[in-house]
Amino acid sequence: MKYLVIFAMCCLLVKVAHAQELFINTEPASNMPANSLGLRLNGEGFTENGIVKSQINPEIMFGASSKLMLHANVYINDWYSNEYKIRGINIYAKYRFLSFDKMQEHFRMAAFARVSTTFQPGYNSEVDIEGDYKGLNAGIVATQLLHKLAISSTVAYTKILADGTDYLKSGDALSYTLSFGYLLLPKTYTGYHQTNFNFYFELLGKTQWSSLNGIVDNRQIQNSYLDAAPGVQFIFNSITRLDVSWRTQLTGNMNRIYYNLLLIRLEHNIFNVIQHK
Amino acid sequence: MKILKIFILSLLLLTGSQAKAQFKSAELYVSGLTCSMCSFATEKSLRTLDFIDDVKPDLNHNSFMLTFKPGKNVSIDMIQAKVKSAGFSVYQLVTVFNFNHVKVSDGFHFSYNGDLYHFMNVNDKTLEGDVKLTFLDKGLVPTDKYKKIAKETTYKCYNSGHVEICCTGKSGKQRVYHVTI
Fold first, then answer.
1. Scanning every residue of chain A, which has its alpha carbon at the shortest distance from the alpha carbon of B42?
2. How many Å apart are CA A221 and CA B89, to the nearest integer?
3. Is the pLDDT of residue A188 over 90?
4. CB-closest option in A21, A66, A188 to B60
5. Crossing angle for the helix pair B76-85 and B36-46, to the nearest 10 degrees
6. What's the predicted TM-score (pTM) here?
């Protein structure tokens, strides 16, 4: 029944004329403009036995060229203790290698990679390099915009580089996403000052193969999950974004830190930070 | 003396006459844009060009009306580069150029700011005052349109974007833009 609802929602979104590709839980194949800077403050939270656990993730983004953009993230959370700790940092690069532009249409593809390091031992049983483990991640994203409908899909491979202090001894993961988005307001543009209101629906899946420290036989555990993440987005003055998304597990057999996650993000963009004569 | 005048005039017409006037404005259509955030980024990128006086966007049609500063040299390639650096593509560029009684025909050239402008698909006529010129070059039209024109044209300079034997009798590095009216 759940899948039927998701399928119906996807079909509905395909029929809606307006769309956006500034996805909340995934990155599109498009990049930010060259010489522009994006500043993000991501806040995430969930409850565990009635206690609210949260994470603050400041993120800086830079459009190095029209094809290459870079992100740097810091993860600070109280997920594994009662105090906030800087858990890890990572650097992300995305290169747009394919672009077919038409009027109000485009198809784009990009390759991306992320490298992370951490300052605390990894406690998570999920293969994750966004704050939890040292590791590498690489993948491909394709984004199609038809008139104003946006559909995007990502496939990525992650490998953690764990040591004896971490919960996991080894871990590899394949993640896959499918995202839809559309613009609800404004119906007609009159200027940059108009607040844009967008709706998103994203499916986020992961299958991983991991082994635990302290287990003698090096046994590999395979498990997976599939989440749905509906979300809304406000864009103010065509330069500042406020995203809110609720991520919830549809199915899975993984022992996770959270099964529901609230994400609130504030993003501000600064154009032409480096002036070229 | 009369023969000398005719000779000089003919030489000017053949090798490219010097237009005294200049680009006044342009209508720029950008492909790949779908949101006001993208349009804003493109406008910000265009505004860094020193010859641009004003940019007026039409967010519903993904176009920009550019006004150029009088006396400043306009670079069409820089307009294209700024759209590209914002992450998008030029779909159509129609400029307004002020002519002062210039007789044009298919293959006619005029020079502006050290570049040549080559007329394509035009009948013989005299241009007076503000005239709309539509650019046909690679990066200034959709890729499929560029490929179609490149396949059909006999002008070698269209493919290279630089001066060729068909323009002045010898090839070189001078930029040649292709326009139609």
1. A33
2. 47
3. no
4. A188
5. 140
6. 0.88
> What does each C-alpha distance from B180 to A160, B75, B105, B114, B173 come to in angstroms?
58, 18, 10, 19, 22
Q: How many CB pairs under 8 A join A and B?
A: 98
In 3D space, the residue among A32, A109, A28 whose CA is nearest the CA of residue A70 turns out to be A32
State the average pLDDT for chain A: 90
Query: Which residues are bridge partners to A188 per DSSP?
Result: none
The predicted structure's pLDDT at residue A35? 92
- Indicate the DSSP class of residue B2: H
A133 in Cβ contact with A116 (< 8 Å): yes
Say what the ipTM of the complex is. Answer: 0.84
Nearest CA-CA distance, residue A30 and chain B, Å? 7
Does B88 reach chain A within 8 Å, measured CB to CB? yes
Question: Which is nearest to A158 in space by CA: A192, A209, A123?
Answer: A209
List the domain boundaries for chain A.
Answer: 2-270
Q: Does domain A2-270 have CATH number 2.40.160.40?
A: yes
| Three-state helix/strand/coil letters over A254-265 | CCCCCCEEEEEE
Is the N-terminal amide bond of A186 cis, ω within 30° of 0? yes
Burial B53-66 (b: 16+ CB within 10 A, else e): eebebebeebbbeb
CB B45 to CB A30 under 8 A? no
